[in-house]
Each structure stands twice: as C-alpha cells, then as structure tokens.
From TrEMBL:
One of its GO terms (cellular component) is vacuole. It comes from Chrysemys picta bellii. Its main location: membrane. Essential subunit of the gamma-secretase complex, an endoprotease complex that catalyzes the intramembrane cleavage of integral membrane proteins such as Notch receptors and APP (amyloid-beta precursor protein). The gamma-secretase complex plays a role in Notch and Wnt signaling cascades and regulation of downstream processes via its role in processing key regulatory proteins, and by regulating cytosolic CTNNB1 levels. Residues 1-25 form the signal peptide. InterPro entries: Ncstrn_small, Nicastrin. Residues 45-218 form the Nicastrin small lobe domain. Keywords: Cytoplasmic vesicle, Disulfide bond, Glycoprotein, Membrane, Notch signaling pathway, Signal, Transmembrane, Transmembrane helix. This is Nicastrin. The keyword Flavoprotein does not apply. Belongs to the nicastrin family. It is a single-pass membrane protein; Single-pass type I membrane protein. GO terms for biological process: Notch receptor processing; Notch signaling pathway; protein processing.
Amino acid sequence: GRHLKGEPSGCGLLFILNFVSFSSGFCWANSVERKIYIPLNKTAPCVRLLNATHQIGCQSSMSGDTGVIHVVEKEQDLKWVLTDGPHPPYMVLLEGELFTRELMLQLKGSSRISGLAVAISKPSPAQGFSPGLKCPNDGFGVYSNNYGPQYAHCNWTVWNPLGNGLAYEDFNFPIFLLEDANETQVIKQCYQDHNLPQNGSVPEYPLCAMQLFAHMHAVTNTVTCMRRSSLQTAFSLNPEEVCDALSDYNVWSTLKPINTSSKIDPMDEVIIVATRIDSHSFFWNVAPGAESAVASFVTHLAAAEALHKVPDVQKLPRNIMFTFFQGETFDYIGSSRMVYDMQMDKFPIRLDNIHSFLELSQVALRNSSVLWVHTDPVSRRNESIQPQVMKLSLLHRGQSESLCLQSQPLPPSSFQRFLRAKQIPGVVLADHRTSFQNRYYQSMYDTAENILMKYPEGLSPEETLDYVTDTAKSLAEVATVVARALYQLAGGTGNTSAIQADPRMVSRMLYGFLIKTNNSWFQSIIKQDLKGLLGDELPQHYIAVTTLVNTTQLVQYVLANLTGTVVNFTKEECLNPEKTPNPEKEMYVYTWVQGSRDPNSTSRVPFCVQSTVHLTKAASPAFELKQWGSTEYSTWTESRWKDIRARIFLVASKELEIITLVVGIAILILSLLATYFINAKAHVLFSSPGDGGAVAY
C-alpha cells in the first residue's frame, strides 16, 4: 500500500510516541524523585583514611546502603535493632551521648546494621568525648627505644585519657553526622509516624527508611592505594586515582626580614615560635579545634603583633620566626616537612641557625591562670642544653605564674620533630601539667563553648566581633607573657612592661576562627578574589588534600595584617613588585587586599600590605621520597569518592515490591506484544481509504 505525502508511517508514529514518552519521563524524573525522597543536606560523613599499615573510617556499598530507621535514645533500644526487630537491616539514629566506643563496637559486629546517623548532642556530653587516641601521634615524636625509652608510647604520662580511639576504627557501613536539629526532627517524626511499635505490635509497611551514599575508592592501606594510583597515572590516558596524600601549607614569617631566595648567614641565630593550625574529629571536615588548635594559634598571632609594635625589634641580636604548622594532627606532617627541608637545604633557615624553640600547645583552659612549662628531660642532660632551657623557663616564670616541669616528657608537640633531628633548647607551654585539660580533644565538641566563650544576648554581629570575652582576656595575658619572654630571649634589654597583647584583637580572631569567618574584619584583610572562602557556617580546621584550606589562607592574611605595614603602592606595583625600584622588594611579600568599606559609599578602599609572611609545603616527605610504607614520616592519605549524600523515604514491604515487579514485567511483555502486533499489521491499521487502487494523473 501507499501513504499520503506528509503522513507518518506506522513505525514513524511509534518512534514519535516513544520519543515523547521518553522525553516526558526525563523531564519529570526529578519531580518524581522529589516526591519520593527527602534529602538531608546538613550532614557530615565519616570517610576512609589510610596510613602505611591500616585503613580507618567508614564506607557504604557502591549503590549506597539502605535500612529501616530506628531511633536509639537509650541503650535498651539497641535490643530491637540487634535481635528483636523483624525488618533488618536497620539504619540507627543515635543520640550523641550514646556515641561511645563500647556501643559502636556492638553495632560493628552485627549484620543487622546497614548504617548510622548520629545526632549531635547539645549541650556537649558532660563526661567528655574524644575519638582520638590516648597517646596522640605515638611513634612519630622524639621518644622511642633509642631516645628516652621510658617515655615512649606514653608510658610515663597518658596525655589524652578520655581518648577512645573511635576515629581510628574501621567500619564497613556508613556513618553520618546530623548537623541540623530540624533535619534530625524530620527523621524522628517520620520514625514516629511509620516505624514506632504500638503497644508491643510490629509496625506495618510502609516504613520510614534512610539511604546513605559514601562509597570509598581506596582500600587496605596507603601503600596499596598509592601503588594503584601510580599505575593508573603511568598507563591510563584518563587516570582515576583512588587516594590523595593529606597535605597543605605551613605559614611562617620572621620578625626581621630575610631573603628567602638564599640561605641566611650560618652565624645568625633564630628563635622559632610554633603552633599547629589543624584539628580533626570522627567526621570529615568537622574540626572546630577550639582548645586543641585555635586558642593556641590566636595567642601566637597576638604575641607576634605585640612584638612587631616594639620600637627597637629590628635591632635585636636574634631574629624570631613565627611558624604555624599544618597537618600536625596526622603524625606531624607540617613540622616533619619543615625539618626535612632544612636538612635538605631547601629552606632559608638551617637547623644550625635555631637558637631555641618555643611552642604554644593547648592554653585556653588554665587553672588559676597557671601556665605549665614542659621541657625534654633527655636533652637537658646535655650540659650545653640545660642552662638555655633553664633560662627559657625562668623567663616565663618571671612574666607570669608559670611552673616548670623537669621530670616528665614533652606532650605531643611539633618541637619533638625538631628534637629528632637535632638537640635544641626548647619549651612547650600548656594549660595542663599531666593529661590534657581538654575533655573534647579531636572532637566535634571542641567548640567555642569548650573554651568558655560567652556573649551577652542581643548583640549585633559587629558588636559580637569586638566584644572582649573573658577567654580573650586570658589568652591575651598568655600572648603578653610569650611576647615579653621572646623579646628578652632575642637579646632585648628594654623595659618589657610596654609589650602588651591586645584583648580586642584576640576577641576578633576568636570570633573569626571559631564562630563566623564572614565578618567585616576578615573581609577587609583578604584579596578580593578570595572572598569566597568566607562563610557564615562554623569554621573548620581539617587539613585538606592538594588545595589550600581556608584556615591556612586566613592565618596567612591575619598574620600579614597584624605584622605587616601599609605601603603607598598602586595595585599594579603591589601585584608586580619586581617592576618597582625598591631595593628591599626581595625581602618582603606584597599583598593587595580589598580593605574596609568606605563609610560614604558601598565600595571598598583597597591597599597594599608589605609583610614577611610566606607559605611552605606541609606535605609529608614520605610521598616525595615515594616511601609509602615509611615509619619515619607521616603516611596519611584520604580516599577519593564519587558521591556523598543522605536521604529518607518510605519503603514498601518485600511482598508488595515483588508484586509490583511482577505486574511491571507483565505490563512490559504485553506492551512488547502489542507493539509487535501493531507493527506487523501497520499496513492494515494505518492505510488510508484511497489506497485501494492506483491513482491516475
């Protein structure tokens, strides 16, 4: 038969119908998904980390793990998910105060658990919570079988007695932190409406379920994952690496400028002041680190500012280097790299140039304003070291109520990595005599509240930024002590009473690093193209992989603002100082910052800052040397992943799912048969009445 011109054939019509059906299905897919699933947007996953020997953390299956939700508010509720419940596997919604090692090991050993969602506890658990180790960075400090064996492995002092090691366990199911109380309530309401057993009876379908996606690509240990990544890079046009080394940058500056393109004179002496700027917790990128890191590096910044204000500091016999180490939580990544660079002549300062070392450890929770001065009892046996260590200790005792500890070892500290390379006089200042005062070390609860930061109600953001808390006053006192001691140690002979840290500036830094980075002061001191790193959420201080983390950049710009000077450069001159005739351009770093808002307009007044602030790699030497199984250097890596998300939905019974599947298959078969029949009889079904004979023209 023949068809009239312009009319589709039977096959063509079917193609159009199928195309329209597919297109409409594609367009409505998102709409249908939104009606089925409720996404959980404010969550933080537990991810997989690896070192030379182990893998730790959590992961889901490739397609995500699903389970019926059961809320566990007390330990007795566990019986339902572990033995009694008729609908395994279960997704447990766990109250924060029950998130303990003992309970987690129970869940880990059960095949009836498909995942876990932890509701953050407010207020923080009164008994304390630390998922870190009792002996942090064990094996990578100075104490070993060859150096102070009686102090190795925390045999003398257990620094973190509350550490339960939970963050160093390996879980084969996903674990997410619920950061938003509203989302937690939505899950609980769904549970109460559909899953809560009534009068002892088993809940009926449909049931509220949760699905967690957190599949990790790396397995076994760093040696395995780095070998796989290197093979991919060598033989694949589109390599898919499975893990990345934890790395970032250290921030450092000097009191007196030095030429970083060459080495300083071997006779020049430098005093190193150090703190760490990173923290960690059980969950990825949840690392507030108020006591473990922030209070210390804020105190360090305040001391640097106070010293730079002293009129005669440029004439001091010794230079002072302010150093902020990144990645110290993971077996001293930053400090071990700086020591390595000094040994390899890749740093302008050599180990032999170091006169002494002063480190600020945890200092925010002092009892009765006492500051403890920790020293190394092994190196003090050296007759040349002992007098200098005593001088360091006495300088602090002369400035405040400080007590020197001579018989016990150093707490976990960057100084230990320098001592591994060379015996250097040094002290570590801390708020604890023996074990940590911090009950939330390496925890999501190490927040501003942990260091007792309190603000009056009703303050505007600007008023809160400048409000001087008692915590800020206390840390300013420590910064003043440190600055005065450093001045005398560097050879200063003037009156130290004028050296004073600014409590208001300490308040600003605490607010910015612990509560809200997106504040007017931080906005004014950074480059315009970096304003995206400021946010309204709580700042986190976890070391990243390959890219500069926010903390590092903010510390860099705050240090430049506090210790640098404003110079009368145009934007072009500031961005390209090598084109200016300034003979000291190689001694300084120039930064064009966006400045404060002009009171008479909405625009900002940018300016150029001249400082001695530099960045240097904080990447473990193990990866540069390709010694992935090293016991000398940190080997921590982070697994890569493709998709991390969480959602809840209603799930039908298995019987209904099977019936739906069978009916769907039956309809599919009938549709195929109908399509075949229509296609076979198309010449009959779609022929026109005029097709019976030939048409004459």
